[in-house]
Amino acid sequence: MKRKTLVNALGCTLALVLLQISIADARPLQMHIMEGFLPLGWAIFWFAVAIPFWVIGFRRIRALLAEKPETRLLLGLAGAFTFVLSALKIPSVTGSSSHPTGTGLGAILFGPAAMSILGTIVLLFQALLLAHGGLTTLGANAVSMAIAGPLVAWAIWRGLQGRLPEGWVVFLAAALANLATYVVTATQLALAYPDPAGGFLASLAKFGAIFAVTQIPLAISEGILTVLIFNALRSSAPAELTALGMKGA
Amino acid sequence: MRTPQTPPSRRGLTVLLVALVIALAVVPLFLHPGSEFGGADGQAEGAIAETAPDYQPWFSPLWAPPGGETESLLFALQAAIGAGFIGYFFGVKRGQHKGAQ
User: Fold this and answer.
1) DSSP of A32-98
2) d(Cα A123, Cα A146) in Å, to the nearest integer?
3) Which of A116, A162, A223, B83 is the most buried (most CB within 10 A)?
4) For the range A160-168, what are the long-range contacts, defined as Cβ-Cβ under 8 Å and sequence gap of 24 or more?
């Protein structure tokens, strides 16, 4: 049942990705929705979507630390990876900058629920200290970066593991998690600000079309960086990976 | 216990991947000599203003960095904390491995 819901969510996300690519217009967009820029109703709605994931995530992390305390440091590493990557604003081919999310690694290692907590901590840091994103938009930003991205990464990891070389699976999981994050952000903005004439879809085109260009090189960078750190973990921390139920390389 | 030594083919792959990431960031700099590579923050506000000209943000950040310099300090700090922890992690693992030998 739960898996079916996840597969559906993934299907919707992929459909949106295809939609994005088929639309051509150029409007850069930041990754997090700015403070106060979501109408109250939508802000509450996205919090309502995020809260169940946070509750499950808290339980997951508590259970993990109780049952496999040896993975504590690795959990910190997954958080640190997101911390670094989301601070790096990298130039892209369109002449503007955007940043990776780093959520794919944690999702592969610990699952999407645990990653929702780690991602939200990073979002809180950026909202409070950098005025990047916001408290009122924390729910929406968590849904895109800390929940939708990790869900996509985890589904790809689960679905393709053993069918492709491991490096490729890690790459695809992380790269598509990055793209999914931006697609969800665009969708959230389009829902809150439908175009007066063309409605939701026209607005989605406006908010989202740039992903096809700006975001793809960044998604590739994020995929490669995740492969690099995953390979390093394979050789440096095999015991932890085994404890998490990862098959040997 | 597995040996920590990386096979040469894998080391080559690592170098190649690092080079690719650097190229992906550096090549755009030469593609757009006139661009400042601004973050798209302000432009998204513009897009909202275009679609919903009457919208007023109803909440503003509790605190915002006073300027670009402080902002880049905090971004650097964020990256440094993360990178520091990553270095610590691999250092600990290396030490554990050596201790076990």
Assistant:
1) SPPTT-S-HHHHHHHHHHHHHHHHHHHHHHHHHHHH-GGGHHHHHHHHHHHHHHTT--EE-TTSSEE
2) 9
3) A116
4) A161/A247, A162/A247, A166/A230, A166/A249, A167/A227, A167/A230, A167/A231
Q: Does domain A31-243 have CATH number 2.40.10.220?
A: no
pLDDT in tens, A20-45: 333 323 333 457 888 998 999 999 99
Rounded to whole angstroms, the Cα distance separating A80 from A72 reads 12
Q: Which residue of A has its CA nearest to B79?
A: A84
Interface of B with A in 50-69 (CB under 8 A): 50-52, 55, 57-65
Contacts of A217 in chain B (CB under 8 A): 24, 28
Q: What is the pTM of this model?
A: 0.85
Whether B75 and A130 lie within 8 Å, measured CB to CB:
yes
Distance separating alpha carbons of residues A173 and A158, to the nearest angstrom:
9
Per residue in A49-63, pLDDT (tens digit) is 999 999 999 999 999
ipTM of the complex, rounded to two decimals = 0.85
Distance CA A116, CA A143 (A): 8
For residue A116, what are the CA distances in angstroms to A103, A163, B14, B73? 9, 27, 29, 26
- Cα-only R_g, chain B: 22
Residue of A nearest to B80 (CA): A84
B23: Cα within 13 Å, side-chain hemisphere? 8
Rounded CA separation A229/A231 (Å): 5
Closest partner CB to A29 (pick from B10, B44, B76): B44
- Residue A223, classed as helix, strand or coil, is helix
Per-domain residue ranges for chain A?
Answer: 31-243
**B30 interfaces chain A, CB cutoff of 8 Å:** no
Query: Do B24 and A74 make contact, defined as CB atoms within 8 angstroms?
Result: no
